[in-house]
Amino acid sequence: MITAPRLPFDRPNILEVAPLYAVLRREAPVVPVRTPVGDPAWLVTRHAEARELFADPRLGRSHPDPESAAMVTEAAVMNGPSGSYETEQHEHDRMRRLLVPAFSAKRMRLLGDHVAELVDGCLDDLVAARDADGTADLHEHLSFPLPVLVICELLGVPFADREYFSGLSERVAAIRSGGDAAEAMAEFHAYTGRLAARKRAEPGEDVVTDLVRAQEADPTFGEAELTRLAAGLLFAGHETTVGRIDLGVLLLLTDPARRDAFVADIDGRLHGTVEEVLRLSAPSGLGLLRYAHTDVEIGGTTIRRGDAVLISTDSANRDAGVFDEPEAFDPTRRPNPHVSFGYGGHFCIGASLARTELSTVFARLFARLPGLRLAVSPDRLDVRSDQVTGGVRALPVTW
């Protein structure tokens, strides 16, 4: 009897995915695996099936029988089912209706100039932080504070609280938490509840105020849903983009020719560079979790009602049936149909925001510091392998 492999798979370094994904893609688009906590799940490895399941309404984040659901990690995000099986679609539709205007591509374009000011301020801090050896931590002074500044302004969260909710985020996303992640998430919800209470007394031009007003207009939009949604936005709004900035910079700095080509034509290569960073950066290696709400036939496999499904965007984005030379970083790649933001009705609502931040960071960072290079070997970086969101804890650079 063949034992199903257990996630996360061994990977050579933070800039590559586990070699086992290539083997699994050749074998089948949907394969049985074990989650990090040992429960059974299906892993989707190919691009076509990933897109199909992302768009399939028969899968969701809720579970028809939550008590029997397979669990993924001990974290409080990406750990198991979330939301109500009976009301998931209604809650999702309401969330999109509330948030699409705030995160629209048009609003993100209007936000672009302000993001540029924030990036320049972070770059000033990075330059000022360079020590006697000529080294500074790009993660501490750019990759982390920039997305936090942006999401704080959008949501109406005090930037002074960044260390507090960042600490909560770290605890919430711990793969092995021993129960602490659930306590941290309860604290996170209490924090966003207090924030909502302040917005009721002193409304602003921000997303949390929008949620409070929506709650006043819709009695079915309860406090638990509001605090869960606000906490989710605050967590995802900075955690995911921090990792993409770090890994994007790494992808450019680990190949000096690639960096120099980008520096020589920033305007011409910017869009393609951002899309390749999104396609190739793979911070966590776990995949996106769904549960089957009914039996689903796909790729010659029957996924039974209630089964856990992990859709590996990292693997799908390297599918040779879709991408020529899939391991190559090619900013001229057209088209580039990566699924880093999902696909279909659950396409990530923050996609335009992430693209705005990444474009602004890469353009202004390399225009200002064209000779930027790593100060340590990539294999010496402190990788957050204990976190659902992955990434690195520091990125020492020099110039």
From TrEMBL:
It comes from Pseudonocardia kongjuensis. Its cofactor is heme. The keyword Amino-acid biosynthesis does not apply. SUPFAM superfamilies: Cytochrome P450. Keywords: Heme, Iron, Metal-binding, Monooxygenase, Oxidoreductase. This is Cytochrome P450. Pfam families: p450. Belongs to the cytochrome P450 family.
